[in-house]
Amino acid sequence: MSPAVISKRKKALAPLTEKGKSYWLKDAVKILKSAPPTKFDQSVELQVKLGVDLSASDQAVRGTAVLPHGQGKVLRVIVFSKDDTAKLAKEAGADFVGGDDLIEKVQGGWMDFDVAISTPSMMKEVGKLGKVLGPRGLMPSPKAGTVTDNPAKALKEVKGGRIEFKMDKFGNVNTLVGKLSFGDEKLVENVTTLLEALVKAKPRSAKGVFIKGAHLSSTMGPGVKLDIAKFIKIEESAE
Predict the structure, then answer these.
(1) Quick one: how far is CA 116 from the chain centroid?
(2) Contact by Cβ (8 Å): 139, 116
(3) Pairing of strands 77-80, 96-98
(4) What's the pLDDT at 75?
(5) How far is 200 from 194, CA to CA, in rounded Å?
(6) Paired sense of beta strands 172-179 and 115-118, if any
C-alpha cells in the first residue's frame, strides 16, 4: 500500500473517534465496521493494559478462555505423542502427530503450525525446543491445557475456540478476538468473554485496579478506547 493511500485512509479514519473518549463495547464494534472497507476480512484485536507489578514474578498473567465464536481462523495444531494417544489425536483432526521425528522436524526450522500440544511423557524431549517455541508463544504448558494425557480432547477444545492469553513484559495482553465479518453480537460476546477471563486471572498479590485500559482495533481500522467500567465492577465484586 502506497504512502498516499495510507495517508488517505488515516484521514478517513480520524473522524470516527473522538480523542480521549471511551466507548461502550457495542459502539466500538460499530465504529470498526463503519471504517472504509478493505479487500480482505480484517482481524479484530483486543489490547488490554494490566495494573500489575512488572517486577513481581507472581504477577505474571497467563490463562485460557473459550471464545464462543472462535477467532475466525483455521488453526493448525500439532501433537507431540508416540503412545496410544497419537492415533486418537490424529483421528480428532491433528494436522501433524509425531514423537522424536516431529521434534527433529521442528528443530530443523519447520514452524507451519499455530498450536502445539504434548503428552506429559514427551515433555522431557519437547523441552529441548524451548528456545524455538518459547519466543513464539508455542511451547506446550500445563497451565494452558496443552500438556495433557488426553491430547485429542485438548485438540477439540482448541479447534472449538479455546485460546491462550499471556501478558507481555510491558503488562499488556494483545489477543485476536475475531474477524470484522463477524456479527456485532458475536464480537461483543467474544470480547466480553476474554475480559471476564482476564478478571478471573488477576493475581492475588496484585493491588488496585487490574484492568487499567482496553482498546479494540481492526487490521486497517482505528483503535477504539473502551469504557471498561463494567469490568472494573466485576473485578471489585470478585475481591
Answers:
(1) 15
(2) yes
(3) parallel
(4) 87
(5) 10
(6) unpaired
